[in-house]
Design goal:
Helices cover 36% and strands 16% of the residues. The chain is of the alpha/beta class.
């Protein structure tokens, strides 16, 4: 007898009752087939009735009807009758199919169902999501959604992914009293077919990194417009020190991005020479608790230099920070990204292909220090990409390597590769990075770890010693 196959990562769909269950992922994850099989088994053994939705359904062929019909035959399930537009079990409705886009109000007529399943949920409109959730009112009823995320700004992503994104990036899983959200990809599917593996390998070689990540890894299908660091550059930098044969040499520098408002996370990063050894964020606690968290990590790492952002609430951390480092040989930097660029009269040395910046000094090119530091970070990623991918020799002191031991590497990629330029300032002839508030308006979360790594890009540590001596006299 054929047996239902369920990847281990999707077993919580069977074992854990939740009001809302979401499965996201790329091609070959078996998410749709697994959910279809579970719904069939539940119809047969528990009498659960499932209403199957898609945003756009011009005909029954656009639904999961064909998948369920095929599985009834393959699994040789008893008691099912497949009709032209519905599937019965023991002469009772087991599955009905409906599109949402043309008549979202019609969803409200789907009474008496224990389960709603929305396939290709990434295409669901805000109106459809708002209509479908309160309609499912049966006792112990559940809303199931499966899809591969499109834009980060889509209603599906905003409601079911963005609020839990950090957990999904770190763990591939999120659970609370209402939600069960699972990210499942081909690598989580032990039944992944060989024919798809050939296709995956071809796409790996021929698609852009962002497109491949969307198709096969369930990544967002939108690159942030005007982002300064492409995904390919970031990925080339992972363990670049091992690929190119250099090690962490030089000062150990730590940086902290405090939370500027309620609900905002805190960031931390640490580099030793050209190697970024640590990057992390903290969601809980207030600005002072975040400060203690970052300082503890820096002291444990024996940082030679510690910087923190003082443009916002960070300025209030001055006394707390200096007292924590009292008696330790650590230079302290109060970073202010809004200030004039460092060495404003020095001629900027553009990387290859940036002739428009030739013979201009830092003051002429950069709007402020934040833009200058982010551009230094960009230059390091570009040079690392050239060294790793194209085999060009570049002094390791000019490169950046990201340790693969960084637990939040996926979250870090999402932040670093979503740092856009401010086009208005660029049109005026200067480079400026989009502000956090403007990024938030675009649906881009606060880049706390990315900002922390940006602050690691300072050239001068001697300045920190002078600042420390001056500030210490205030206490």
């Amino acid at each position: 007898m054929p047996e239902m196959q369920c990847p281990e990562k999707l077993l919580p769909l069977i074992e854990t009752p939740k009001r809302i269950k979401v499965v996201i992922g790329g091609r070959g994850s078996a998410k749709s087939m697994t959910v279809g099989d579970i719904c069939l088994m539940d119809a047969q053994t528990k009498g659960i009735k499932t209403a199957c939705f898609r945003e756009y359904q011009n005909s029954i062929d656009d639904s999961v009807y064909a998948l369920l019909k095929e599985e009834v035959t393959r699994l040789e399930l008893d008691g099912f009758t497949v009709q032209n537009s519905r599937i019965l079990h023991k002469d009772q409705d087991a599955f009905k199919f409906r599109g949402m886009a043309r008549n979202p109000e019609g969803i409200k007529s789907m009474q008496g169902f224990n389960r709603f399943w929305v396939e290709e949920a990434q295409t669901a409109s805000y109106k459809s999501i708002r209509a479908i959730m309160p309609t499912l009112r049966e006792e112990e009823s559940e809303l199931w959604l499966t899809g591969n995320p499109q834009s980060v700004a889509d209603p599906f992503s905003q409601r079911f992914i963005k609020p839990f994104e950090k957990h999904l990036l770190k763990d591939g899983f999120y659970e609370d009293d209402m939600h069960l959200i699972i990210k499942c990809n081909y690598s989580d599917n032990p039944f992944f077919p060989a024919v798809l593996e050939q296709e995956r390998q071809y796409d790996k070689e021929n698609l852009s990194t962002a497109e491949y990540n969307h198709v096969w890894l369930g990544g967002y299908n939108d690159e942030v417009k005007d982002s300064i660091i492409p995904v390919d550059w970031f990925d080339a930098a992972i363990d670049a020190h091992k690929k190119l044969g250099f090690g962490p040499v030089g000062p150990i520098i730590a940086a902290h991005d405090p939370s500027d408002r309620g609900g905002d996370g805190k960031g931390y990063a640490l580099r030793h020479g050209s190697v970024v050894l640590d990057a992390a964020d903290l969601d809980s606690g207030d600005v002072n608790e975040g400060c203690d968290w970052a300082i503890d990590r820096a002291i444990e790492a024996r940082a030679d230099v510690y910087a923190w952002d003082c443009d916002g609430l960070g300025v209030s951390l001055k006394r707390q920070t200096f007292q924590a480092f009292d008696g330790k040989k650590t230079d302290l930097i109060m970073f202010k990204g809004s200030e004039t660029p460092e060495d404003p009269d020095r001629i900027y040395e553009p990387v290859q292909g940036e002739s428009r910046h030739s013979n201009k000094n830092n003051r002429d090119i950069f709007k402020n220090k934040r833009a200058q530091y982010y551009w230094r970070l960009r230059d390091r990623f570009y040079k690392t990409y050239q060294a790793v991918v194209h085999g060009k020799y570049i002094d390791p002191d000019e490169l950046i390597s990201l340790s693969s031991n960084i637990k939040a590497i996926d979250q870090l990629r999402a932040e670093v590769c979503r740092i856009p330029l401010n086009k208005r300032s660029l049109a005026a002839g200067k480079i400026q990075i989009m502000s956090k508030l403007d990024m938030l308006a675009m649906g881009i979360s606060s880049p706390n770890m990315a900002d922390s790594i940006m602050m690691l890009m300072g050239d001068k540590t001697a300045t920190a010693t002078r600042v420390r001596l001056n500030l210490t006299s205030e206490f």
